[in-house]
Amino acid sequence: MVMSALIGKTAIITGASRGIGRSIALRLAQDGAGVVLCARDAALLGDVVAEIRKTGGKAEMIPLDLRLPEAAEQLVDFAVAKFGRLDIVINNAGATKLGDFPELTDADWSDGFALKFFATVRITRAAWPHLKAVSGSVLNISGIGGRTPGAMFSIGGSVNAAMNCLTKSLADTGVRDGVRVNCVLPGYVRTDRLQKRLDAVVKESGVPMNQAEERFVADSKILQLGEPEDIAGLVAFIVGPEGRFFHGALIDMDGGATKAV
What we know:
single chain, 7 strands, alpha/beta, 261 residues, Rossmann fold, seven-stranded parallel beta sheet, 8 helices, 2 domains
């Protein structure tokens, strides 16, 4: 069933082939937006597009490696060519390497910033004139590691912290230009990446998966694991008409993982 909150709007979602990005694409399409999906895996993107179209939604896809400087303008031009306008940009793409700091190379750091931070910069810059024309919205997906990084998350924590800072800076520009800019910081959400961590708990401890999840939740001092659909629901609210007063917000959605004020 298609709801009406975003009918007539066009949204770009990066990292849309799986996990949080996929759920955001499905939800925005359900709410009536025409969605443009971007990721590197064309086959997985095609599956998401087919799922959206099967339920009456409007979706297009463009496989791109967003680490490449020219990819951002290609993505924005494609979206505008397909739908005639651009209202929403969801910067979600980017996974960073986990590892002990002394073992992380320059290439690891460069890759982490290229896919998540610099892609966000380039896409937002390319999209800004279109968003300015329609009083559009940018929503960045960062992560709680940007507030409380750990020893194995020095790249991801640094990238997410940069995303948070960029959000605040862009929001200041958005006051002048009429573009809303916000950031959601997911916690432990049931994605492929989290599943690998749970699999490691099962392997190390020998307990079944349900007990591994209980142990992970207890050790993380959180209420429960999140689902990608939880994040998608919040994103849809923020970029929709009811979220109009959100601007420059860094919103934790993490089951209580972030303890700092």
